[in-house]
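Most newcomers find our protein records easier to grasp once they have seen one. The structure tokens are whole numbers drawn from a learned vocabulary of backbone shapes. The record below serves as our worked example for the rest of this section.
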Amino acid sequence: MYTQCEDINCRSVVPVQDTPANRITYGSCVVTNKELTPYMSANKTGTYNSIYGYYKHCFYNSIPIPNYLMALTVGQLAYQSIGTTTGVITEPSQLAAAAAELSDLQSYLDTAEAYIQSPYIWGNYTIVIMPPSFPMGGMENPLLTFASPTIIVGDKS
């Protein structure tokens, strides 16, 4: 599952006045079975045992954002760090190729931070490579940027 809150679609996910002028902080908990893993455009605050073998994954974003930057993905997903503050999320079968393709991501982030003379305020920058069956464009969200699987071509281009 992937959310697409751009441009005013966030109101289909949560009851909000969906306008870019509205800046919010938010917290959320997502309950899944053991086969599914959620990620959000918020920092994970914990994972807890729930009832009947389910897990409760909780998130919190303390930096005010426009509603359309809220993002959630849930699935049989795997995460791999590709730098001190960068990583990639995708289906396990695609993880090695995605990590190799994006292996320069940390140097790009370091260069951007040096240029603007400020650290990336969100902490970790992660790219979600969507499955080949869902080759929708992309969406830049705090902590979680959705990208089309068509960017994984094997030559880092």
Remarks:
- The first helix runs from residue 95 to 101.
- The radius of gyration is 16 Å.
- The mean pLDDT is 92.
